[in-house]
């Protein structure tokens, strides 16, 4: 299912890339009409050079021209500013923006074991001061693939300078890849972990709102984020994590047989913050 969604999104983005070029070309006369207003934000716009950032400003600058006005009924080429052509181009640009957000800010990850929601249970951890943990409700064999780490893929620098700085608790739930280029962030817009990750990012205009309303169907379960490190004397880890830097996935696999009611534990490495543990 996830592969089918990714293939569909890639197709939409590919077709939209050509479409957005035509959309901006046709909307150029609107941008020129409001040149003074648009140029006042030139410096801010220069920091965000991609279409996914520039489009909201273009729309905000141009929307007033879509309203009926006796003083601005046509442009210099004699084209009505409220003609079907203009409305079509705006709709096309908006669809392109939605498709780009859907692809880049979508929630990734999944639980792959059968009946995952009944096989795994989130409840208070045995680790002192660790909050919630993840437990099994039935026996599972060594080598069982639990799934892939959930969240939104973000450039590491963007994440730590943005959400990581504003909401430090988000760092504790994010997965930083070993090459330090990207993180997978499963938290909400306030940096808190919920039962599901809806997707979206705080750096892209309207992204969080779009995913919390239009794209809710893509939400992913965040149970794997609840796995803690083992306390001293418990007997070590029973889960391993394997990174794929090409696909930017983290696969969780059992490295021991587990029995019903057993808590799952994982070694998060040398850089993990353990100050919260008792």
UniProtKB/TrEMBL annotation:
It holds the Pfam family SET. It comes from the Eukaryota. Residues 1-23 form the signal peptide. The keyword Signal applies. The keyword Nucleus does not apply. Keywords: Signal. InterPro entries: SET_dom, SET_dom_sf. Residues 118-269 form the SET domain. PROSITE patterns: SET (PS50280). Transmembrane segments: none annotated. This is SET domain-containing protein.
């Amino acid at each position: 299912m996830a592969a089918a969604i990714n293939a569909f999104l890639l197709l939409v983005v590919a077709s939209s890339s050509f479409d957005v070029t035509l959309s901006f070309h046709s909307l150029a006369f609107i941008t020129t009409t409001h040149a003074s207003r648009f140029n006042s934000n030139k410096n801010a716009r220069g920091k965000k050079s991609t279409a996914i950032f520039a489009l909201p400003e273009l729309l905000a600058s141009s929307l007033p021209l879509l309203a009926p006005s006796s003083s601005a009924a046509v442009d210099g080429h004699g084209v009505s500013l409220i003609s079907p052509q203009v409305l079509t181009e705006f709709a096309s640009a908006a669809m392109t923006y939605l498709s780009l957000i859907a692809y880049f800010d979508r929630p990734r990850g999944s639980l792959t074991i059968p009946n995952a929601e009944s096989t795994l249970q989130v409840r208070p951890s045995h680790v002192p001061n660790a909050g919630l943990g993840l437990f099994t409700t039935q026996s599972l064999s060594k080598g069982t693939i639990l799934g892939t780490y959930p969240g939104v893929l973000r450039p590491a620098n963007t994440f730590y300078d943005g959400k990581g700085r504003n909401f430090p608790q988000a760092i504790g739930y994010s997965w930083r890849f070993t090459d330090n280029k990207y993180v997978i962030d499963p938290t909400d817009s306030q940096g808190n972990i919920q039962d599901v990750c809806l997707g979206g990012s705080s750096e892209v205009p309207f992204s969080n709102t779009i995913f919390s309303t239009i794209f809710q169907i893509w939400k992913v379960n965040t149970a794997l984020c609840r796995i803690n490190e083992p306390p001293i004397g418990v007997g070590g880890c029973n889960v391993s994590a394997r990174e794929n830097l090409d696909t930017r996935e983290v696969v969780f696999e059992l490295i021991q047989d587990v029995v019903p009611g057993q808590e799952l534990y994982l070694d998060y490495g040398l850089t993990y913050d353990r100050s919260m543990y008792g």
